[in-house]
Amino acid sequence: MSLSFSPQNLYLMAQAGPGGLMAFLPLIIIMGIFYVLLILPAQRRQKKTQEMVNALKNGDKVVTSGGLFGTIVGLEGDSIQLRIADQVKVKVLRSAVTGLQPDGKEES
User: Fold this and answer.
1) Domain span including residue 90
2) Residue 1 lies in a domain
3) 3-state SS class at 75
4) What is the pTM of this model?
5) Which domain CATH number covers 81?
6) Residue 93: CB partners within 8 Å, gap ≥ 6?
7) Predicted local confidence at residue 51, as pLDDT
8) 34 with 81: CB under 8 angstroms?
9) Which of the pair, 3 or 23, is modelled with greater confidence?
């Protein structure tokens, strides 16, 4: 027996009474729970990170995904220049910046 989800079959299942529609209710509830618990927080976190990356400016102290701590000394489109030590500058992608350094921490 093949179960196909054509509009006609879905209509017939809905017409079959509470058993046809109630069979899909747990699936719909599970999908709603996954959306609220997994997808929404991930979208919010990604949006917050993107806003932080777009708001970077010279003098900001940042941390990269590779673990480098540095101060932004130049912005160039999709990349930034970081000063990681005296007379040492590296060029990294903006997307490599994972966050701003906490104010209480000093570079060593």
Assistant:
1) 56-100
2) no
3) strand
4) 0.64
5) 2.30.30.140
6) 78, 79, 80
7) 94
8) no
9) 23
